[in-house]
Each structure stands twice: as structure tokens, then as C-alpha cells.
Design a protein that fits this description.
The chain is mainly α and about 160 residues long. The chain has 6 helices and no strands.
């Protein structure tokens, strides 16, 4: 049973890591689930604090994944309309269950928001939309890094008894 749980934990974390790059797949939560399964295994000595802290990080990063594109719009000089559009566009990919919209939703949303705000300044609208897309890529990178950290925590725990 212990070996089965440990192997399942590794598989879930690897699937979660791959899933961070696949739209519509909750890679980070799946990766954390792998860490939690490892916690249940007698082979691992993960502390409850490791599980709680990684859970909090997973929740924060999951939320930030939707917020970062909107904040990138603001940072690039975009308007509130562009920020709202990026946020709505990011979330619409989930609601519409469409991977294309999930990838480019924040871009499209920011572009539409900026055009609604000022239809004459297409250059600014494109700059905001591109910044939103960079934010999407940044969020994906953060999710991948955290999921990879879950894998490292599991390996270090099994090999050295850390965490």
C-alpha cells in the first residue's frame, strides 16, 4: 500500500506538471494532490505544515493565474476597461470550455476592453492585449515552477527525510 501511494504521488505530480502547460487542465491542483497522497503514505514523512503551506501556495498561485494578466494590462498603461476585459477573457475560457479562448482569452478580452474604451488608439489596445498575454505566460511559468517544487519536495523527503 505504501509503495502504491508513493508511486501514485509521483504520477500525480508529473501529470500535474505536464498539465500546467495544457489549457483546461488543473495541473497545479493535481500536482498538490500528489503531494497530499504522499503525505498519506508511510514511506513519506512530510509534515502537516508542508501540506498546509503548499496548499496555501497552490491556492494563491491559482488565483494569481487569473489576476496576473489584468495586472500586466495596468502595468503597460492600459485602462480599467482593458483590465476587466483581460480578467473576463481569462475566465471565459473556463466557462466556455474552450482551450483556444483559455490561451488567448486574456489577450482578446484586454483588446476588446481597450477598443471599447478608446476605439481610435489601436496601438495602445494591442500593447495592453500583448501585455495580458505575457501575464498569461508568466502565470503558467509560476504554476510550472510550483508544481516542479512539489516534485522536488517529494524527492527530498523520500531521499533525505526533509520537509
Amino acid at each position: 500500500m505504501a509503495i502504491t501511494l508513493t508511486v501514485a504521488a509521483f504520477i500525480l505530480i508529473i501529470v500535474g506538471l505536464v498539465g500546467t502547460f495544457i489549457p483546461m487542465f488543473p495541473g497545479l491542483p493535481v500536482g498538490w494532490l500528489g503531494l497530499f497522497i504522499a503525505f498519506l503514505s508511510p514511506n513519506c514523512t512530510l509534515s502537516i505544515w508542508t501540506i498546509v503551506i503548499t496548499l496555501l501556495l497552490m491556492v494563491i498561485v491559482t488565483v494569481l493565474d487569473y489576476v496576473i494578466p489584468a495586472k500586466m494590462v495596468k502595468k503597460s498603461g492600459g485602462t480599467k476597461s482593458g483590465e476587466r476585459g483581460a480578467l473576463i477573457g481569462s475566465m471565459s475560457g473556463i466557462v466556455l470550455v474552450n482551450p483556444i479562448i483559455l490561451i488567448f482569452g486574456s489577450f482578446i478580452g484586454a483588446l476588446i476592453g481597450e477598443i471599447i474604451n478608446d476605439s481610435k488608439d489601436i496601438k495602445k489596445a494591442l500593447k495592453s492585449a500583448f501585455s495580458s498575454f505575457i501575464g498569461f505566460l508568466l502565470g503558467t511559468g509560476i504554476k510550472a515552477f510550483l508544481t516542479l517544487s512539489f516534485l522536488l519536495i517529494l524527492i527530498l523527503n523520500l531521499v533525505l527525510g526533509l520537509f
